[in-house]
Design a protein that fits this description.
Elements lengths: L1 H11 L9 H14 L8 H17 L27 H6 L1 H21 L9 H5 L8 H17 L11
Helix pairs in contact: 1-2, 1-3, 2-3, 2-5, 3-7
């Protein structure tokens, strides 16, 4: 699935000073989506990967070394390390840790927002709004979920085995 994930990333941002990191990011997304998909259906892994791509694009433009303006959120997913038992340096220099932490926080956001009766498009509300509330990040949640859905429509998953040299 790595080539497909890379194709999504390139479709969103073909070049960047950190584009040399895209393959590592795609591998981390692939592994995380397979290990802990957000959905249990047959498309769950692909949907999870697309949502991780969309979220990484919105949060950091795929820059694994991104730091927000306040210096409190880090890496691809602009993760706040307080409460996730990861240091800022670890998040910035360990892409699998960053993506895995993103997905952990996404699972929690989906759980909390579902309990509060939020529709699927709003379930990243806690992740995007922070502070344990689903209602703060609704616009951002809908943008990320909408982009993920658009990516799946425009670039359906193709299961191509990656060449091993």
């Amino acid at each position: 699935m790595v080539p497909w994930i890379l194709s999504l990333m390139v479709a969103l941002q073909a070049t960047a000073p950190w584009s040399y990191t895209y393959r590592d990011t795609a591998v981390a997304i692939d592994r995380a989506a397979h290990a802990q998909p957000l959905w249990d259906d047959e498309d769950g892994v692909a949907r999870t990967a697309a949502l991780l791509v969309a979220t990484s694009f919105f949060e950091s433009r795929f820059d694994p070394h991104a730091i927000d303006d306040t210096g409190t959120t880090f890496c691809l997913g602009q993760v706040d390390p307080r409460g996730v038992f990861a240091t800022p340096q670890a998040l910035l220099h360990d892409t699998p840790l960053c993506v895995g932490t993103m997905l952990l926080l996404m699972h929690e956001s989906f759980r909390v927002c579902a309990l509060r009766g939020r529709p699927e498009l709003d379930r990243l509300g806690q992740y995007t709004g922070g502070g344990g509330r689903c209602d703060r990040g609704l616009r951002e949640s809908r943008l990320r979920a909408g982009l993920a859905a658009a990516l799946l429509r425009a670039h359906p998953p193709r299961w191509v085995e990656e060449a091993r040299w």
